[in-house]
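Lesson 9: reading folded outputs for more than one chain in a single document. The general rule is that every protein is listed as its sequence immediately followed by its structure tokens, and records are never interleaved. Here is the first one.
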Amino acid sequence: MTDAQHHYNPDPHAHPGLHVIAIFEAAKGLLALLAASGLELLGPAPLLRWLHELIARFQLDPNEGALAWLNKVINPDGVHLAAAVVLFYGLLRMLEAWGLWRAKAWASWLGCISAAIYLPLDVYAVYHHPGWTSWAVLAVNLIVVAVLARDLVKRRQ
């Protein structure tokens, strides 16, 4: 093979797979930014009201498990912390999308690692909750990891 066949093309337009993943990551980032904004705008009062309505409607025990925990953590400090975490996640996804759109190696690394982290959870979900949604999520994450890993391998050749 010639040198040209082994050379990685740095032109972002030569990597449509990265663009598709970038759009997907940007959408996740935008949703996270909207969720963080919603948490800050709403505050704890409506969240607690919704939680209590859920408990009443389904006659759940508010003193057990996740409901008891939610009842304790839905307060101004808890909502601010949750909004900050979701904001960070959204900004990270937007940064990754920007890097993937421009075919940056660091973005391929970030995306490959962050998608691969979810694979054990996806396999667990398929095993314990088989259905088309579990399989679809697993398939999408496998495709994302494969495309980004392929991009990283091509860069090293």
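And here is the second record, again sequence then tokens.
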Amino acid sequence: MQNEQRPAAEDPANRSHEARAEFVEALGFLVESIRWMPRMNGRVLGCLLVADGPLTQAELRDQLDASLGAVSTATRALLEKRFALRVGLSGSRQTGLVIHPDAWRNMEEDGIAGVQEYSTLALTTLEALGDEESPAATHLRQMNDYFVEVERRMRAILVWFDEQKQTTR
């Protein structure tokens, strides 16, 4: 009986690589389709999420088959939004990128800041109108009420996030 070799698709390492690559592409399309961020930002984020360690910009470029400029622009945006963190690479003067340990908390905090801006705009305009009984005032009160409730729920998510972080230590 000859040694039978499994097809490459059945190889666990190959399956893992394919699953990671499919995730990276799917996340890129998802974040673009919901207008959250450009596709390349989502692809870089995806790479960092499924990486087993820090990735340099050159490694990201190679994995994504993208230009260094596109990768650089995407990583700069992810660093600014506190989704990624720059780390030193052991034995090298290079730096790599990893997912920020508080990436999802940071996203929620940024969301809260945006929600507060909507609420403030509604209240400021409501005050400037001065007509408490107009349809415009009713709409602005509803807008404010909505964003106050959204903020309350987002803050509850932060509490949950912090509790989860404490239990996983």
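What the second record shows: The chain has a mean pLDDT of 92.
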